[in-house]
Structures are given as structure tokens and as C-alpha cells.
Amino acid sequence: MSGMINQTHPGSPVLVGALAPLTSPGWVEAGHHLLAGMELAVRDVNAAGGIGGAPVELLVRDTAADPPRAAAAVDELAGLGVAALAGEYHSVVARAVAARADALGLPFLCSSAVLDALTDGPTDQVARIAPAQSHGWRIYADFLVGAGHLRVAVATQPSVYWASGARLLRDRLAASGGDVVELDLTALAPDALGDRLVDSGATALLLLVGHPEPAMSIVRSVRRDPRLAGIMIGAPAGQPEFAEWAKELGDEGAAIPFLRYLPERPSPLGARVGTALRERLGEAPSFVAFEGHDTITVLAEVLRARADAPWPRVDVEGTRGRITFSRPPGGSVWQWSWPPVQVVDRDPADPARLRIRHPA
């Protein structure tokens, strides 16, 4: 595999390009959690001797949810001699990173983007820690069916990611006799959703929209409409995971189930890393922070191996379980199959506390 360690002098740092959305319109809170996990893992790797005695050093670039900007960052980082690329949260951005990394022969381990088609064709350069969207969102659809929600409305914005999610939900619900009603927010203001929801007959509304807006405005509008008191709001993409959600919405942000990629109980390693992440972030770490830590842990093993085909050889203890890679049927990248998946929400009795609604 090209793009591996290229040290100018023995003992000089092993450079890893770290990509994350750190400014708007990117999901900034997710980006900071992702970077915190990667930085903590670098500290742990270096404390254990680094890569053959050489320390790992992150070269951080802000993608700002902008695919062209991210692709340009890949070119810049390749020119600076990085051994590999790590990170990214937004799926459309990760696709741009994966395409450019593949073209340059530079290893890229994607932390958080879940879109199934991360690349247009098979590649040995790209691997992923996060589960594919089809895996996690089918679990979410099973949760909906189990909770009795067979007619589901989805508030959507134009995006290949949201369109893919809506299709996955529709197909899974249809298999159980359910259906999906799409509400296109390009033609419908958040405060006009009420009439459409009442007319739709849906028992659940899913937020397939950006964060913080229009997601938070939709929640406020629905929660304050007495006609919609029985509607469950859901957010499979994980908007309620972060502390900002609870801070801004309070009680109105509770009882909104979302996907979370953590085990029901942490391992000793997961507990130790979770404590360190909480200290670093000053708040409870999200699953995205753990994805960042696992990404660097895996990349350290890959870089130590200096192998031409490293992904299928990986077998390492991560914060959320043992990590190995394979190619799922139809998959184009090497994939951890699968990280733990939960459906959780914020407890109405204490919105700061998360409760598991559907372990998978």
C-alpha cells in the first residue's frame, strides 16, 4: 500500500492528516468531539512508544462540510508527507476525501460517515469504522415497527445522505406493511408542518434535516402544537446525541430516539477512555469521540505493520469492542462489521441522561 510511513529522518514524527468539520456550515460539535477522540488516541499511542519509536503527529484540517475544500486538504496533506488520513463526519465530504485519497494511493480510515457508497468502486485504500447507513437505519426501522409506528412522516432536505436514509426506511417499513410520507422542507416551512402531519395520519415524524437548524425549529413547532401531542419525533442521524441539543431544547428535546454506536456497557478500555474524554471535552463524550479514538488506534496498528494490504490483517481492541475489517456483500471499502448499535433517547425525567430504547 502506497502512502505509508515516509520519515525524512529516523525518529521524526509520523504524520497523520486529521479531517473534521470545525466551522459552519459543518456540524461543529461533532467535529470537536471527533478531533478530541483522535487527539487523545495520539497521546495514548505516543505514551506506548509511538510507531517504531517515532511519535505520531496530527495535521488537522477543517473541512467545514465542504467536499471541494476537503479534497483540496487531501492534496495539501499528501504534499506534506502524511502517512495516512483519518476522520471526517459528513458523508458527502467523506466521499470526496475517499475519492481523492484513492486516486493518490493514500490510506484513509473514515471515522463517522455512514453513507453506504463511500466510494464509486472497490478500493483497498479506504476503510471505515462507522457502520454503513443501511445497517444502522434498518435497525432503526425495526425499532419503529416494534413500537407500532407503521405510518411514518420524514421531514427531508436535498442530500444524497437524507435521500438514502428515506429509501432505506421506506423499504424496511414496507416489508412490515408500513409506509413513509415525505415532507420536503424546500417547499414547506418548519412552522407549516403541523397541518401536513395532521393530514398525513403518521404516528411518527423523523428529522432527516440539518442540525441545529432546521431540526431544532421543527422540534419546537411540533412539541408546541396540541394537535400533535401523540406524535413521536425521531432523529436516526443522531442530532440529540450532543450536549447542545439538551441545552437548547431542554425538556422539548427529550424522548426523540436516535442511533448511537456504543455498547450497552463499556469495557474497561472504553470506561478509561470515556473518563479521559469527559475531562478533555468538559462534557459527556458522544459516540463520535469514541469513533475518533478507535480510528487512530487502528491506524497506529496499520502503520506499524507497514503491509501492502493491511486492513484485513487488523485485529485490535477498540473502545467499543474488537475491531476487524472485511468487505460486506456489495461493499466497496473495508468495513468494521459491525460496531455496536443502539437506539437511545434523552430521558424526559432527566434530559441529560440517555436511555436505551432498542439494543441491537
Quick synopsis:
This protein has 360 residues and is α/β, with parallel strands linked by helices. It contains ten helices and 15 strands.
Overview of this protein structure:
The chain has ten helices and 15 strands. The chain is of the alpha/beta class and 360 residues long. The strands form three sheets. The protein has an eight-stranded mixed β-sheet with strand order 2-1-3-4-5-13-12-11, with helices on both faces. A four-stranded parallel β-sheet has the order 7-6-8-9, sandwiched between helices. It is globular.
- Pattern of helices and strands: EHEHEHEEHEHEHEHEHEHHEEEEE
Largest beta sheet: strand ordering: 2-1-3-4-5-13-12-11
Count of beta strands: 15
Derived structural class: alpha/beta
Which bin fits the share of residues in helices? 25-40%
Largest β sheet strand count, sense and barrel closure = 8 strands, mixed
Beta-strand content: 15-25%
Radius of gyration from the alpha-carbon trace, in angstroms: 20 Å
Question: How many helices does DSSP assign?
Answer: 10
Which stretches of 5+ consecutive residues score pLDDT under 50? none
Terminal residue distance? 35 Å
Report the principal-axis shape. Answer: globular
Overall pLDDT: 94
